[in-house]
Amino acid sequence: MSGRRRLDWLGLTPEPERELPVAVAALRAPSPASPPPPPEAQAPAPGARAPAGETPAAGPAAAAELAAAERRRVERLVLRGSRHGWLRYLAEVTELVTSVAEGSRPGDRAAALLAAEVVLDHHRMLIGLPGTGYGRTAEDRTALESAVRVLRTPTRTGDSR
Q1: Where are the domains of the chain?
Q2: Which strand (E) or helix (H) includes residue 130?
Q3: How far apart are CA 104 and CA 18, in angstroms?
Q4: Is this structure's pTM higher than 0.85?
Q5: Do the Cβ atoms of 150 and 116 come closer than 8 Å?
Q6: How far is CA 86 from CA 55, 134, 154, in A?
Q7: How far apart are CA 33 and CA 49, in angstroms?
Q8: What pLDDT shows up at residue 128?
Q9: Which tens digits make up the pLDDT trace of 112-135?
Q10: What is the greatest pairwise CA distance in the chain?
Q11: I need a labelling partner for 54 at 20 to 30 A (CA). Which of 2, 40, 70, 151 fits?
């Protein structure tokens, strides 16, 4: 191989770039069941930004902001990242999905199912690429297959998702 960077991983499928940002943002969003922030933390002063590491108050604007941030992250990974960095990101998404499926993390089950299916499809296609990507994602594929089965099963708590 020449000294050029391998970009074959970018040609797998556009679904992760299109569908993961909104789904992952929904999984990262604070749970509706979590206690609301104190009143002074809910509405920052005009032009003020939340301190690093703090999540803005929940709501449509916050959800849109989280999705935009996730979209920028994916864009950076695709445009300037590496296959290794991309697979690390997808492993992080897998962890979010499996945590929701196991019930160890609250989250939007529909978003978790969408993310699980997109990442699982991506990982299955790695078999057609040279390198170790397919073997490296074997554990994640198994975890995602299990999560998909769980997430497709209706819950008994009355949750319609």
Answers
A1: 8-29+58-152
A2: none
A3: 27
A4: no
A5: no
A6: 24, 13, 31
A7: 24
A8: 85
A9: 999 999 999 999 988 988 888 889
A10: 58
A11: 151
